[in-house]
Every structure is written in C-alpha cells, then in structure tokens.
Amino acid sequence: MAGIINNNSVGKKYYIIDFDSTFTQVEALDELARISLQEHPDREQIYRKIEDLTNLAMEGKLSFRESLAARVQLLEANKDHLKLLVKHLKKLVSTSFSRNKNFFKHHADDVLIVSGGFKEFITPVVLPFHIKKENIYANTFLFNDEGKIVGYDEANPLSNEGGKVKLLKELQLQGEIHGIGDGYSDFQLKEFGMIKKFYAFTENIERKSVTEKADHITPSLDEFLYVNNLPSAISYPKNRILCQVAGEVPDVAVKYLRKDGFAVKHAGVDDKLLSDAGILLLGEGEKITADQLRKATKLKVIGYLGNSKKHIPAELCTEMGIVIFDNIRKPESVAKRIARFINNGDSFKSSNFPNIQLPTVKNAHRFIHIHHNVPGVMAKVNQVLADNKINIVSQFLMTNTAIGYVITDISSEYDKKVLKELKKIKHSISFRVLY
What range(s) does the ACT domain occupy (predicted)? Predict the structure, then answer.
C-alpha cells in the first residue's frame, strides 16, 4: 500500500502536524460541546457520548466518518459558540508548542496542519504561530441562515475514513515527510507509506494503540525537534532528564515535577538509576553516600525534604557542581526550586551554591558555567566569547568560598566549537546550555 510520495527526495522536508490533542491540549469538538450544551439538561450524558465517539475514532475502533457525523449532530452549536471556542483554545495550546514559536516562524513553508477538525476554529488558533493559511488542511462546517451548524462539507477528503492519506495523495508533496500526532489517523500516514516517520505525540494524551505503532514516542515538541536536530527553545528535552525519588515524598512534589515534563521514577536510592539521574528528590531521613554521589555523573540538583546536613555530602556536591535545595516545610516549594534551577538557572535559596535569582531572557541563549573560585576564570569565559565575536546580552556572577557560578545570555547564533572551548577552560566544574 505504498503511496506516491518520494520520501527519498533530497533537501526538502515537510512536517505534518495534527491539531486536536497535539497542537492544542484538548479535543476541540469536545470543548465545543461543553460550550454549546452548557444549558442542556442532559449535557453530562451528551458530553460522555461525544468523548467516547472521539476516543473510538482516535484509537481506530470506529470509522472517522461515523464518529464525525455523530459528534456534529450532538453539538447543537452556532457561530457564537465557535467564537467562544477559539478564545478558549488559544489558552490551551500545548505547552511545548507555545515555547517553540520560532520553529514555526523559520519553517513556515514546511509545516502543514492536517486535521479532521474544522478550519473555523483551527485557523485563528494556528495563524499567530506563523503557519500559512494555505498550509492548513481541515474540514469546514455548513451553517443555516441563523448561523447554526447543520453539517459539514462531505466532499472534503478529511471528512472520510483515511482522509489524511487521501489528502496527501492529492498534494503530491516531494520530499522527506514527518508526521506528528496522537491518533490512529496520524499513524495511517505511515501505514500507507505517505511519510518517512510517525511520531506519537504524548504530551496531552497517550493512546497505547497508537504509541505501539509509532517510529518514535515524543512526549513534547522539544523531543521531536531534538531528535531531528532542529532549533528548539530549550537545549535538552526535559522528558530525557530523569528525576529519581526516594523515601517519603508527598505526591504534590512528584506531580509538580512530572507535570513540568521530567521523567520521574520513585524507586529509592538505586545505584543504577542514580547513574542516569539528573535530579534527585529525597524524603526526610534518606541518605546518599559519597561513593554513590561520585557515580552520579549526570546529577545537577538534589532536593531534600528536611535538613540535609547529616544526610548529603554537601562539600562533594559543591565540588561536582550539584545544587542542593533543602530544609523547606512545603514539599512543592522544593519541587518548584528544582524546576526553576533546571529551567532558568536560578539557584535562589540553595544551601550550598551562590544564590542567584534570574530573569527569563527572551530571544537569547543562556550558558551556565560552574568553576572553582580562583582568579581569572571569568576573564577566560569572556575571552572565548570575544574571540568568537559573540555579543553578551547579560551576565551574572556569584561566588562563595568554593565555587563561582556564571550565567551568560547571548543574542547571536554560535558555532558548537564555542561550547567545547568553554568546557575546556581550566578550573571548570560543569557547563551546560540552558536554552
């Protein structure tokens, strides 16, 4: 069942992106039902029926045509409801899509929104992301004279089962094509040979029937951009940063870190996991030895729910460039400070690091350099940047008796050799690109 697209064509790449539960966090027709039926006496029963019809189609258990027709009949919606829906959806763009607007800006010719949803609500939501109107492919509603939705254009291929496959056959795009989505209709593009790779998007919902068929599971757009070597708002996907949890840690802290996008495993201080962990969150009374710590070569931050003084070798942590946040009564506060450090470089209220509270700088790259507190290191950092003609937007330095903590924001693009030079500076402990 091979398609007619030449995925071996050199040079040009296209990115086919789904809308519902991919570009946005929700299924738009489900949300439209909640708006249009809010005064209906049987609204809860109808909501559940519409959600069931959505899921059956997304899992490939019901034809898309049957699901769509049944859902539209149940909506009882009009143009005023659609205006409210658009306003609602603009607030519910997927988090990783929101922070990667620059990707869409620089790839405006390459990104196509292909959805079984409807242009009436998709177009106004995606246009602010620099996506071209002619690159939006979706269904269209039919209205009566009073503006009520009475049906949809049944001639549109996207209203039929396998509609995305039919559409791509008609488009005859020449190039390497990648598809991103959460549903069975997105996988069908790969099944019928229309795209090179299918990426199951799981930031909002994970459907086992879809993920088990995917070439790659992408928990965020950051992950997709990372594996395809495309520019991203953050340098390393948070879903690849393992947070190891040990001891009695309240769910509120674990849920916060998981919601922020980190991979969380509650498994005790496991040496094997520790070697891969970027974050360690410990309940009061838990310990980590110096030998264990030395093996944790990827570890960046430790959160401790209590006083860590007798339980964590703080001096060794400092020597290794590992930040400690502890002695905080509210567990969620520890989680927030961990996330703030990973996301922004903020070391405020750390018990072993120089305290810096940082602003978030837009349209810039942020470097974090940790070094032994000896004279001349800062000068060497700036000399590397000067030699590579890199303009500094802002720079922050704090020291304690052991280390210096430098955060540098630059506005220009840079060659990767700059990173190697910064890492090689004498007395460096660790270096990372934040975004």
Answer: 366-435
Residue 324 lies in a domain: yes
d(CA 148, CA 323): 58
Output the six-digit token pair for 166: 């039919």
pLDDT class of 173 with cuts at 50, 70, 90: very high
Residue 111's domain is classified under what CATH number? 3.40.50.1000
β-strand 365-372 against 301-304: which pairing, if any?
A: unpaired
Q: What is the pTM of this model?
A: 0.85
Q: Regarding beta strands 392-399 and 149-152, do their DSSP bridges make them parallel or antiparallel, or are they unpaired?
A: unpaired
- Reported as a single tens digit per residue, the pLDDT across 218-245 is 999 999 999 999 989 898 999 999 999 9
In a domain, 351, yes or no: no
Across 9-24, b (16+ Cβ under 10 Å) vs e yields eeeeebbbbbbbbbbb
Average pLDDT over residues 248-256: 95
